[in-house]
Amino acid sequence: MAKVWIDGETSIEVEAADGVNAFNLTVDDKQIIVSAGQTILEAVQRVDGIGNIPALCNHPAVKPYGACRICTVEVSEDGGDKFKFVASCLYPVKEGLIVRTDTEKIRKLRGGIIELMLARCPNVKRIQELAEEYGVDKPRFVLGDQDCILCGLCVRACQEIMGKSAISLVNRGIYREVAAPFYAYELTEECIGCGDCAFVCPTGAIEMGDDGRPVLPRVKIPYAEVEAMMKKETAATS
Amino acid sequence: MVEQVRKLLEKRVESPAELENLRQSIAGKRDTSRTCISVCGGTACRAAGAEAVVDAFVDEIERRELQVQVEMKETGCPGFCERGPLVVIRPSKIFYQQVKPEDVPEIIAETVLGGRVVDRLLYVDPSTQEKVTYEPDVPFYKKQTQNILGANREIDPTNIEDYIASGGYSALSKVLTGMKPQEIVDEVKKSGLRGRGGGGFPTGKKWQSCLDAESNIKYVICNADEGDPGAFQDRALLEGNPHSVLEGMIIGAFAIGSHQGYIYVRNEYPLAVKHARIAIEQAMDYGLLGENILGSGFDFTVTIIRGGGAFVCGESSALMASLEGKIGEPKAKYVHMSEKGLWDSPSLLNNVKTWANVPLIINKGADWYSKIGTAGSKGTMIFSLVGNIKNTGLVEVPMGITLREMIFDIGGGIPNGKKFKAVQTGGPSGGCIPEKFLDTPVDFDELTKLGSMMGSGGMIVMDEDTCMVDVAKYFIEFLKGESCGKCTPCREGINRMSEILSRITQGKGKPEDLDTLEDLAGILSAGALCALGQTAANPVMSTLKYFRDEYIAHIEQKKCPAGVCRELIQYSIDPEQCVGCLRCLRACPTGAITGEKKEPHTLNQGLCIKCGACYDVCKFNAVVRQ
Asked: Which chain B residue shows the shortest CA-CA distance from A84?
């Protein structure tokens, strides 16, 4: 018999799971029994009051992606000898896994990531709340003025749920942004105006416009705009 | 058409015994005493004009009607890129370097026909000033162990018979005739071979998990997406000896039970793509690829996929995403690619060099192989030795050789009488190692301990005129441009590091910047999604660790000790030293230097753009850089 927690307050004495379709997991020193085939984040979120894992780029409706990294936790597969950092939204539950969701190290890491996000998007309410929770007051970097944290939820929702790809992540690195594929000037008829992208957006960077189509975050390098300008110039000179 | 098909069928080798017969008959047809002129056809020598040299040889041989006596061969790269184009006259192995087309008639007349050596084309050992006549005596080669690279110099990569004649595909025969998949994997495990692409993961372990993975479909992938600045050993192998890579892949495929392989190669390597394609076609013709290989009933084909040039696609999961036709972004590898990789099937991905090691291990045995190297790192490793070094090129050495031997004995040391400052190993994610660790043996674990890594084998040597902050900035800028942007730590963190480093090199750094850099490095190594992000801070961390005083000089004294960072240096003319030769005055692009002949010149700081042209041309040390 083992002491198993069914929520943050209540524990019961049951037979430990024997690892066929269920695993014994220790989350912040509390043992829980979870079904196989899910990620740590999914498993922990199902047990109220256990663990503290924030997540921004994760949504139950789409496949996990692992972009924002604030759901990072420490896990040990060898009974607690060695711990490593993993993204809980992607890491599959395993028998005997020990998970720590709120250690000093993790708070520092998450605080650092949130500082980077806050520097990029200083005006986003969700990020400000997280910054407060993790004790980040003012980023040490030059502040940006973006609303989008590039979690990719909108793009994945459009593709995975709607089966469309009206919006896309274009460019790479710091130049990455959400735009119409190939930087098209405006959304094509591929967009059916379902509003999924605006619904899943964790920062409110996408809103629905009056024409029933989403208004995307402002694009920094709109090739289409440059093209249009060049066309205008050629027209003027010829 | 029918005739063509028949001819094609004739080439097909139906069994290992037939392969042996073929090998004998090729050897029988060849006259080893016949003069063979081999010109290195690697990319570096081509850039130096090797193609024109080859054309000149062909013309001259035709003109003198020597086609029967003399064989002409364009080989792969033996590594001494510094001295290209390289020409070796076999069988005597007379070695000519920096050969120009106009030297060709003389070589033919003197060496080929007259048996005399053309003195002025010989290599002069810079340390002893002695001329070296024969290729094996060149000091650069003498201290190397070219187990993998060595074949490059003898083989025409576009002719499969050359490879077969040199014993090629005998490891494949051995495997197909008597080894069970588990035996092959055990042999690789026992050899101690570790992945040559960067991570150094034990190859045998990877093969085992791929063999154990249950699936009807498995893939074998060769990672030839070499993107590290200054590294070109994978290119040299794929260009110079593509069959050795193919043979390794076929053996790997047979071991894990795969029937489809891919070579993912950068499109920026046109010659490697071409030679790999020719090799695949020839191997298909000879029945070494395709259906029923050597009559064993085993089928395997290889397809070439050209990469679009994203650095991150050298990372295995991003490579596979790119191969699937998706955006080249890494994904988490909590389930290994060897269990769930390309199209979610078990996939065995190894670097070009790793694959090229496989036939060697099978042929000579794991015991022989594991005798080379150190306790944790077996075999030889090919490094590309570049930067401020006399002998730029590819160097193959046993693991465990010291950095000093590599840089000073093989590399010949630092040119222009400058002092050694640091060596950057492992590409952009590696670290800078200072002089006091020059006696460290080079292997996977030792380099990691120093805060650097083996990586793909890049080795950039830097002299005293190098600013380490500037070097860190260079690598961070590179990684900033190459980060895929998927995860926050890498995308935002590297960008912020680059901001801070730019500020420091402009003299606007703050003392707390160093702590911020260290914090960012911690976030990257613990939080980033893939190995590229996790190791991205290495150049910054290692320079901070070993050259912290340089950072402090930039921040506190607003000085760049090496005189590199433009915002922090000033040029002036020392009137005592200046003889008024007008050289600097003429070199200055902005007219900042004025003066009369034989009178000391003056430099107008307002007009100076700090290009350093005056400094470079002054022969009297009159231009001072502070």
From this structure: B526
